[in-house]
Amino acid sequence: MSKRARFALLLAAIAVAVVALDQWTKYLARVHLSANEVYRFLPGVLEFQLHMNDGASLGMLGGNRALLVGVSAVASIAVAAVMFCYGKLSRGERIGLALILGGAVGNLIDRAASGLVTDMLYFPWIEKLPLLPSFVCNVADIAITFGVATLIIGFIVDDVRERRAKKSEAAGDTSNDASDESSDGTSDE
């Protein structure tokens, strides 16, 4: 099996692992938590609370099941296509896309099955950060967030590398011009 094929399998495994962990934790939350219950696992850091969300992130577009299922399905297909077919991505960027794909499919399963996404992870300390709202999320949401962060870091690293390569080329061209002038025995003086 080629390196490329092995890496493609790794990407698929990451996405499937995210979906499996997401669906398992959602099942556990639905079975073991009630709607008004708060379980303080690490007080002030991580709490478990059952919330059923009929919208997208932070409840946006609530009640638009068909739209959210359609957009989630199209986005999942697009992410998979870019991850596997676009040649100019780094390995890190592809791993970021695998995390996003797994998260998108995890939430898509909930939306398609019941119209409600199960959220259960609450991080109280986030409320203390400026400009961030309080929210309850799930493993899929966290995978999407880390995937987007990985993509952004990958894009920044790629940009820095490109700029350095262009600087090196420009510096190399200048030094080549100077060596060409001196090698022909002429000088400006």
Overview of this protein structure:
There is one protein chain. By secondary structure, the chain is α+β, with helices and mostly antiparallel strands. The chain has one domain. Helices cover 63% and strands 11% of the residues. The chain has a four-stranded antiparallel beta sheet. A hairpin with a 3-residue loop joins β1 and β2. α1 runs parallel beside α3 (91-114), α2 packs antiparallel against α3 (91-114) and α3 (91-114) runs antiparallel to α4 (139-183). The chain is globular. The protein starts with a helix and ends in a 6-residue tail after the last helix. 25% of the residues are buried.
How is the topology of this model organized?
Elements: H1 3-32, E1 38-42, E2 46-53, H2 65-85, H3 91-114, E3 117-122, E4 136-137, H4 139-183
Antiparallel strand pairs: 1-2, 2-3, 3-4
List keywords for this structure.
189 residues, alpha+beta, 4-stranded antiparallel sheet, 4 helices
Oligomerization state: single chain
* Total domain units: 1
Cα-atom radius of gyration: 24 Å
Query: What are the secondary-structure elements, in order, as H or E?
Result: HEEHHEEH
Query: How many β-strand stretches?
Result: 4
> How is the largest sheet built, in terms of strand order?
1-2-3-4
The main β sheet shows up as: 4 strands, antiparallel
Helical fraction equals 55-70%
Low-confidence stretches: 182-189
- Shape, principal axes of CA atoms: globular
Structural class: alpha+beta
Instruction: Please state roughly what percent of the residues sit in beta strands, choosing from under 5%, 5-15%, 15-25%, 25-35%, 35-45% or over 45%.
Output: 5-15%
Helical stretch tally: 4
N-C termini distance:
62 Å
Averaged pLDDT: 83
